[in-house]
Amino acid sequence: MVIAAASAHLPEWTEYRSKSGLDPLGMQNTSVNLYQSLIPGIGNVTLRMRYYGLYAWLSATYAKRVGDTNPVTWQRYIRRTEALYALIAYVRGNEGGITGIQWARERLLNGIPKVVDFAADAEPKSDTFYFKLPWGAYGLAYASQLSEVGIFTDVVTHDIAVPSETVGDTLAKAFADELDDLAQPFINAIERGRVSQADLERFGRLSPSGIRKQAAERTCYENILFARAGISDVNALSRKASLSLVLKIASMLGRSPTPDDVRWILYAGKDGKGQIFDPGPALAAQVDRWQGYQANDLCHVALETLLRYMLDTLAEYPRGIAPAALIGLCAQRITDEAKAGGKSWSAFAASVKANPNSFAPDGDSEWTLVRDVLPSGRETNFCSTEIASKAVTLLAILNKRFLAGLESLKRELHQLGNMNAFHSLLTESQFLQQCADLPFHQAVARLLEERVLRRHLWVALKKLRHQGDYTFLIETDDGLIRLRKKDGPTLTNPRLGPTIQFLRDIHLIDDTGLTPRGQKVLEAP
Q1: Of 447, 459, 390, 452, which Cα lies nearest the Cα of 422?
Q2: DSSP letters of 166-226?
Q3: Among the four residues 89, 111, 164, 227, which has the most C-beta atoms within 10 Å?
């Protein structure tokens, strides 16, 4: 076995950017691409719906009052608005998902002064910044999603996005109507970089939780999210379908669902108690897409667990060990733990009795296996042989459960681009099929060598060559490998937290589940 070519060992004097091994097997990227197509227009860091209206109004107001196409001027407006919004949210109280809220808490810790001067804190290079990144939450999270849902459109003559005629102008006007008599003091506070105590308290109704149930602003958000604002392309329809599924789950549970509720109910087709989830024929295809995403996510978690097992085993040999010896040792330990001696891979897979309910809290369900292999589900980060064996069991269950349905995943991956560029449930199932007749020990050894160890080295080398990032978790020296650092496993985050919060912000979901308005949205064509 030759690995050295794929594991560049840098001399001590070489400079490099050392980073943690994010996506150490190059498989999380497939999951990310899948969930981006499932909920386009909402990001993992777009945490509150009302920011969309705030930015639409700010852009329209800036164009009318200032019209300066210098990005620095627009940047100052954005940063002052975000800092002011953080102050408003803190004074209002009980507001989450607000950029700069910790800064606002510290600024007002001893009470609200008669005038709060925040101009200096809003400057990008200020020592007292409300948020470090130069373009604030707008640049980090919201700008791309505002364009994705059609609120913003690009113009030819400058680089500052402006509200679109179809969606953005309507939302900007609706937000302005909610400002009403506060419009002038609000813009004054932004332009001056300071706000009076009285105005700060009056601005409370503009906070993220202040969207009124009967307001045109709320209707605008609903129309945007559910593809009724004039844009009904494939992305808008996919977002509508996913949000409709969340509403159906809220109705089924009789409470506001968690992100885990959504991903596991869609995957299993039932809740943890076995209650059947019926999406209806119109949403069945979207459920299939969510199942493919979740299965892919579980697949890379299983493989990352095996990587962590190899790393924890490697830690037993501080002076290093030959790669073949490490692979043989790990494969033998897993074989002994699984009591699979003498079995082929296919015989082992056939012997695994998976719980029919993938979301069940007992037996060999995917939910229990993932709970056990993730570090958050156990007392220690150390990956034992028992945990590694559960990861192999998870792979066997996934392969059996989705073997017949891989054509739908193929279609999904083809839509993302070159299918060969992605490691996924599809590629791993094809690999396990090739190992079907091998003895279990040999199949696991191949799995550890080809799908875990070699793949990590290939991914890390690619990052080093193209990005200059040193993410190797192991290093080689004179034919031996040594541990450099440990990593994983982890699930990806498919935007469900912000999605649920958006639906709560616009009064479609509450603590009791689906609201009357949410029910009407589900019943609409």
Answers
A1: 459
A2: TTHHHHHHHHHHHHGGGHHHHHHHHHHTEEEHHHHHHGGGGSGGG--TT-HHHHHHHHHHT
A3: 89
Q: Which amino acid is at 253?
A: L
Which pLDDT band, with edges at 50, 70 and 90, does 115 fall under? Answer: very high
**Which string of b and e fits 29-63 if b means at least 16 CB within 10 Å?**
bbbbbbbbbbbbbbbbebbbbbbbbbbbbbbbbbb
Our measurement of the distance from residue 151's CA atom to the centroid of its chain's CA atoms, rounded to an integer in Å, reads 22
173 C-beta neighbours (distance < 10 Å), count: 16
Backbone φ and ψ of 42, nearest 5°: -130, 135
Using DSSP, state whether 153 is helix, strand or coil: strand
Task: Note the pLDDT tens digit of each residue in 117-145.
Answer: 999 999 999 999 999 999 999 999 999 99
Q: What's the confidence (pLDDT) of residue 79?
A: 98
Evaluate whether 211 touches 217 at the Cβ level (below 8 Å): yes
CA–CA separation, 178 and 445 (whole Å): 64
pLDDT band at 159 (very low <50, low <70, confident <90, very high): confident
Helix or strand run (H / E) with residue 18 = strand 17-18
Contact assessment for residue 171 and residue 60, using Cβ atoms and an 8 Å cutoff: no
**Distant-in-sequence, close-in-space partners of 181: CB < 8 Å, separation ≥ 6:** none
| Residue whose token pair is 């937290």 | 497
Average pLDDT over residues 340-352: 94
